[in-house]
Amino acid sequence: MKFSTSSVVAIAALAGSAAAFAPSAQSLNRITSSLSMSTEVAEESKKRVTKKEKRLQFMKTESFHRRGFKDVREGVEKSMEEQFKSQLVDELTSNDFVLEREGVKVFLAKDFGFCWGVERSIALAYEAVEHFPGKTVHITNELIHNPEVNDKLHDMDVQFIEKLGDGEKDFSNVNDGDVVILPAFGASFEEMSMMNDKNVDIIDTTCPWVSKVWNTVDQHQRKGLTSVIHGKYAHEETVATISFCEDYICVKDMKEAEMVVDYILNGGDKEAFLKYFENAVSKDFDPDTMLDKVGLANQTTMYKKETRAIGQMMQKAMMKKFGPVDAKDHYWEFDTICDATQVSLYNSVNTLMYATSAISNL
Q1: How confident is the model at residue 113 (pLDDT cuts 50, 70, 90)?
Q2: Which of 199, 223, 303, 312 is 20 to 30 A from 360, comparing alpha carbons?
Q3: Which residues are catalytic, by number?
Q4: Domain locations along the chain
């Protein structure tokens, strides 16, 4: 093929133009450096160990106990049966949970007693005391909210960690070789980490339903979500849960949830908002940026219907703000409600209503 002189000139010109768009060596170096930095950031993100993963590392140590001690189990089971068995309760349960004496009716809720998580916690604590005779045994908080059980632990010479106020505790009496019990509603990550660094045996009686909530807020972190915790910020379980969060806000009821939803949709007085929730949010919480993507979790003892209602309200707010298609990227929910608590509450209310009805018909 032959080219005219003008064609050759044109091709040369095009070649020159193409060279003008080619990256220079300096530009290529910047791009390579940028890509390298992006890769390093991504790798660093992958390497970052979450608090949940650190807890799992604690659990793998020989000094961390969650399964109890078979060598003393039989004796502990007999002890618990003697402590909690009641002839009156047996009589009530055998008579459809109603007993009448001299014109007085006594009603008993059908789910009276401990749930399996609490029974497990009590058994683990009692077994620990029996398994480590001669050792000083501490507990970081009340085992459960039951005076009889906590009094029994006092009688067994279990040392309750002193509370100093403002959420602080005095761990100075915990020494090498001691035993430390974590209660049914868990302990904060910081307390677990502290105990792991000490030469002590840790007895973790945390209810599996509570640790399920911790798994959920861990997922929130991985997805870049702010955790909205339906619970009381000062409750021991919620204190433990928020210690596994990065960004969080606690709402105790529908009123506070509505305040959060209103800020999501309309913004508002940031200073007043943070003042109201000052004890219920993570450090440096910014409602202008941290409420665009949220995940819901709860204190397991909160009422199921209210948690569900808060979830629906949050979901609707995200649909309204971001549209029905994109809402799924801004709200995430996983069921962390303890069914045993809900059944107990439901049957207690029904029993009360039935008893009130029976009295009104007298």
Answers
A1: confident
A2: 303
A3: 237
A4: 58-207+344-360, 209-337
